[in-house]
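Progress against Task 2.4 (sequence-to-structure conversion) is shown through the following example record, which the project officer requested during the mid-term review.
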Amino acid sequence: MARRSLRHLAGPRGALRGLTSKQPKVVALGGGMGLSASLTALRRITGDLTAVVTVADDGGSSGRLRDELGVLPPGDLRKALAALCGDDEWGRTWAEVIQHRFESQGDLHEHAVGNLLIVALWEQLGDHVQALDLVGKLLGAHGRVLPMSAVPLELRARVRGHDPARPNEISTVRGQATVALTPGEVQEVHLVPTDPPAVPEAVRAVLDADWVVLGPGSWFSSVIPHLLVPELLQALTETKARKVLSLNLAPQPGETDGFSPQRHLEVLARHAPKLTFDVVLADQDAVPDQDSLSEAAEQLGGKVELAPVAASGGAGGTESRGAAPRHDRHDPELLAAAYDRIFRMHGRIGPWR
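Structure tokens generated for the chain above:
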């Protein structure tokens, strides 16, 4: 049966933004440090910003709270809120507070303050969106944070060579933390449940956006999962917003070892064949074969924009769940400049025009 259109969920574009608005309405999708990098950049160029965050994390503090209380994993939501905190004293202080982790010999060890705050408000209010909005208000966040689904999700992957002793065997790997660090080659991923409900506010945000940004981040465990929520994928397909696919600075150890930039596009297209993008953003020093990347981008309906977006030290991984910290990151100012140029050069919609 054909899905009915979701356009009725979008509000009047001018009425929502005000006819005098001169800022793009931007929705950024992802999870973990990749989404944080994008949000830290985007909040510098627009005051109308919404983050839609994956909820499949099952490791660390988030996994423990999820297992013990049956709640959504709060960790990626917390990171997004921290990224939206301002650069003033209030914002810096609250960002540090919610990211603070306890060190002890007891049950609080490694729990993040922000995780506990978010879960406490979920239990008090009984509403995921209302609670996150309240935390954002407390922090003075420069934008809104929404979960992509209101139910905890399990990520599963078909992986070739997960057992190094059987390099050609394809097995099923369960759990986001395990998928992110698999030594094998990920073939495809799916969610359990397979038809999870999208948060309605997230769908509305996508439908009413001027620009949608997907990535950077862990490709199989933070980026592609958004395309596995049917209502969210439908919204991404139907929206009149222009779309940017923001690539990582380098393959991620374990999850995308050996992937070229164009292969990232190819595996995304396999998971969402009808989804198109207007722009593929990549660091100019992270693309050894520009012609091949351009061809892959054309298959998605878009064009490549190359820009210096890596922090000092060169291109490197954006995100590596559970692995040792990497020192190479997207530079917030450079990434903001790249987004701003794309938004200005590739067209505006509605009252922002």
